[in-house]
Design goal:
The complex is a heterodimer of chains A (115) and B (115). With 115 residues, chain A is mainly beta. Chain A is built from no helices and twelve strands. In chain B, a hairpin with a 2-residue loop joins strand 5 and strand 6. Chain B is built from no helices and eleven strands. Helix content of chain B is 0%, strand content 49%. The chains are: A mainly beta (115), B mainly beta (115). At the A-B interface, strand 5, strand 6, strand 10 and strand 11 of A face strand 4, strand 5 and strand 10 of B.
């Protein structure tokens, strides 16, 4: 069975600074995808960034980038130039390829961006 | 694209009552998922539909839970004889057919509170 671990329950960062959220996972699969989702307070979950396991290049979406270390089964999210609107719960998620595409989530990291 | 719609947003009921939630996915999406999210945890997979066929159910989905997607469009999730432990946010997501390059789009969720 696959598991996803987020070891930082809460983090805080000053506006305009950079912050890194950690995620590790465990799987024996070779074909899979990794995701970071953002859930703002009382708002719906939205996709931040995704990474295909077969790609060595780290995914980047504007101010968001990942550090994907496949051998270490690590998938961290870096947020550059943090903005107040980045305040949210961030979930790391795993998806096995070629199956039902169900997501397996970590327990989340609550990020607070301070003005 | 109006997004994934869930109804109701909030439901308060007494223990032992039956409740039903509705999810309207994005119109062109043929995959639909239900997740349950308890306080301080990440969402947990409950069940998955491809069109009208329910293809996977989690062991979390006890026999008091039933989900349908009769015409491959909207879906309902019914909980019979509710228990305190059913209190949670119930999230619905949809995606087009495909592998992990097709992200899941989430609704706002239905928050269930059992008195």
């Amino acid at each position: 069975a696959q598991t996803v671990t987020q070891s930082q329950p809460e983090m805080s960062v000053q506006e305009a600074e950079t912050v890194t959220l950690s995620c590790t996972y465990d799987t024996s699969e070779s074909n899979y995808y990794l995701f970071w989702y953002k859930q703002p307070p009382s708002r719906q979950m939205i996709l931040v960034i995704r990474q295909e396991a077969y790609k060595q290049q780290n995914a980047t979406e504007n101010r968001f980038s990942v550090n994907f270390q496949k051998a270490a089964k690590s998938f961290s999210l870096k947020i550059s130039d943090s903005q107040l609107g980045d305040t949210a719960m961030y979930f790391c998620a795993f998806m096995k390829g070629g199956a039902t595409n169900k997501l397996i989530f970590g327990t989340g990291t609550l990020l607070a961006v301070q003005p | 694209d109006t997004g994934v719609s869930q109804d109701p947003r909030h439901k308060i009921t007494k223990r032992g009552q039956n409740v039903t939630f509705r999810c309207d996915p994005i119109s062109e999406h043929n995959r639909l998922y239900w997740y349950r999210q308890t306080l301080g945890q990440g969402p947990e997979f409950l069940t998955y539909f491809q069109n009208e066929a329910q293809l996977e159910k989690s062991r979390l989905l006890s026999n008091r839970f039933s989900a349908e997607r009769p015409k491959g469009s909207f879906s309902t999730l019914e909980i019979q004889r509710t228990e305190q432990g059913d209190s949670a946010m119930y999230l619905c997501a949809s995606s087009p057919r495909g592998d992990g390059n097709q992200p899941q789009h989430f609704g706002d969720g239905t928050r269930l509170s059992i008195l």
